[in-house]
Design a protein that fits this description.
heterodimer; A: mainly alpha; 14 helices; B: Alpha-Beta Plaits; three-stranded antiparallel β-sheet; 3 helices; 7 strands; binds iron/sulfur cluster
Chain lengths: 359, 158
């Protein structure tokens, strides 16, 4: 029971946690709060994921001069809810020759790793479930676990398309993980801490990190967005589930709720990449120019959401603009361009900090 | 040095692409290019070359151009057309001639390939532009193309 002695700052709604502590012994109260927060996050991000799907469909429609879903509910707002209900009520089918255990395990790997990463984000000053001092490191580690789920799904489906998709995902994640890690490292040089809340504190006085670090920061941001898009397996890096080549890629054999897990995880991953970028480059929940800094009742989480949505829109814009890369082009982009650029960029950042050229 | 100019060119072309799609995104509010189907059911008109189903046009006197030559029946790759024909004596010439009794068309089997229409020597059958072809009973998809009591237009055989 060592981890219960760990001082986990569960900051959300102080009053509720105080109340729970007052009516229960400490151990039970700790457990209760963990469960409450876990359930709250699950519900919140399942719904948020659904609305991201809706947003994607709307944005896609506008890029293609269409209207998009507009039948279910006002402006189609309930469309993805209806889709999710449909998927939940569907029969879970599978082929005979699957590896049952791994096949059933794979979707949970993907969705759980996606939801776990949400825990460390500081959505506002109070709204952060798990503020560890190695937050960024934790994020990078967690986000690479998802690929195991994808590999398992492809392998256990016993389907050649699924396997090809999964293998592509493996090579893609291994390659682009480097760029994500190195571009984050570039920013860590500037912040000097891995704790997400501290990173935001650094920006409160010095301005957003993308301004503090100017040139190397902007290069790091561009590399991070490219590598992050690749990490989430979205177009133009969606070789993993390239519809025109592989059916649906690694989740070809999945149906019903298990398919929905993969689908939702993709969108939550997109949210995660955008959130990391917001925390690292755009000051997290800090308001631009501190305009709402002195308004105490103002929910800072709004700034966070606005910034995240902006970056998500950018990723959607990528998706509906660029054609899919070939595997060799994918690897050329990473190993020949992004990685050397990234290493140069770290040097540049180090020099900038050494000579005190930061703004 | 071409390494860096490649990067520059790459970024530039990507941004060009994004500005094009971004332009469309902004203009999307001004009007969509897709048909808002059930809403504009009254006004929606299909295009000339749209293949809805095979029909046989009749003129005001209930006459069609079909001579009963069966070219369409032979041309159809999947047997969607069946022609029930008859021999009658032509009152004008006193010779026996072939006329159609029923030109039966199975819309349920038709692949809309258009071979029958190309094969027809007298252009007796054409494409219709209707698109709401769903019915509650399969038998409704078997259609007799020539209207009851219709006859072939005189002189079309020549
Ligand atoms: S369009 Fe093709 S399939 Fe249909 S009736 Fe004519 S020949 Fe047969
Ligand atoms: S529709 Fe045309 S091809 Fe078919 S039997 Fe009549 S005249 Fe001949």
């Amino acid at each position: 029971m060592n981890f219960l002695q760990m001082n986990i700052p569960l900051n959300i709604t102080k009053t509720i946690s105080d109340w729970i502590f007052s009516i229960m012994p400490e151990t039970a109260a700790n457990y209760t709060i963990m469960v409450v927060i876990a359930v709250a996050y699950l519900a919140l991000f399942a719904v948020a994921g659904l609305y991201l799907v809706l947003l994607e469909r709307k944005v896609a429609a506008w890029f293609q001069l269409r209207i998009g879903p507009n039948r279910v509910g006002p402006w189609g707002l309930l469309q993805t809810m209806a889709d999710a209900l449909k998927l939940v009520s569907k029969e879970l089918t599978s082929t005979i020759k699957i590896d049952k255990f791994l096949y059933n395990l794979a979707p949970y790997f993907v969705i759980v790793s996606a939801l776990m990463a949400m825990a460390v984000f500081p959505f506002s000053k109070q709204f952060q479930a798990f503020d560890i001092n190695i937050g960024l490191f934790f994020l990078i580690a967690i986000s690479s676990i998802g690929v195991i789920g994808i590999l398992l799904a492809g392998w256990s489906s016993n389907n050649k398309f699924a396997l090809i998709g999964a293998m592509r995902s493996g090579l893609q994640t291994i390659s682009y993980e480097l760029s994500v890690g190195l571009s984050i490292l570039t920013m860590v040089l500037l912040t000097g801490t891995l704790q997400l809340s501290e990173i935001i504190e650094v920006q409160r006085t010095g301005g957003w990190l993308i301004l503090q670090g100017h040139v190397p920061s902007i290069i790091a941001f561009m590399i991070f967005m490219v590598a992050g898009t690749a990490e989430t397996n979205r177009a133009p890096f969606d070789l993993v589930e390239a519809e025109s080549e592989l059916g649906a890629g690694f989740h070809t054999e999945y149906s019903g709720m298990k398919f929905a897990y993969f689908f939702l995880a993709e969108f939550i991953n997109m949210f995660i990449i955008a959130s990391i970028a917001v925390v690292l480059f755009f000051g997290g929940w800090l308001s631009p120019f501190g305009i709402t800094e002195n308004i105490t009742w103002f929910p800072e989480v709004i700034w966070f959401i606005i910034k995240v949505l902006g970056l998500i829109f950018l990723m959607m814009w990528f998706r509906w603009t660029f054609p899919r890369l070939r595997v060799d082009q994918l690897l050329t982009l990473e190993w020949k361009y992004l990685l050397p650029l990234n290493l140069m960029n770290i040097m540049l950042m180090a020099i900038v900090i050494w000579l005190n050229w930061t703004i | 040095m071409s390494y860096f100019s490649d990067i520059y060119k790459g970024i530039k072309t990507l941004l060009t692409g994004m500005s094009v799609t971004g332009g469309y995104f902004i203009r999307a509010r001004k009007g969509v290019i897709t048909q808002q189907y059930p809403n504009n059911r009254e006004t929606l008109k299909m295009f000339d070359r749209f293949r809805g189903e095979v029909v046989m046009p009749h003129d005001a006197d209930n006459r069609h151009y079909c001579t009963g030559c069966q070219s369409c029946e032979i041309a159809c790759p999947n047997g969607s057309i069946e022609i029930i024909w008859d021999r009658v004596v032509d009152p004008a010439t006193g010779k026996k001639k072939k006329i159609i009794d029923k030109h039966i068309y199975h819309l349920s089997m038709c692949t809309m390939c258009g071979l029958c229409i190309e094969a027809c020597p007298t252009d007796a059958i054409v494409w219709a532009q209707n698109f709401e072809n769903s019915v509650y009973d399969r038998s409704a998809l078997t259609k007799v193309l020539n209207q009851p009591g219709s006859s072939v237009l005189d002189g079309i055989e020549d």
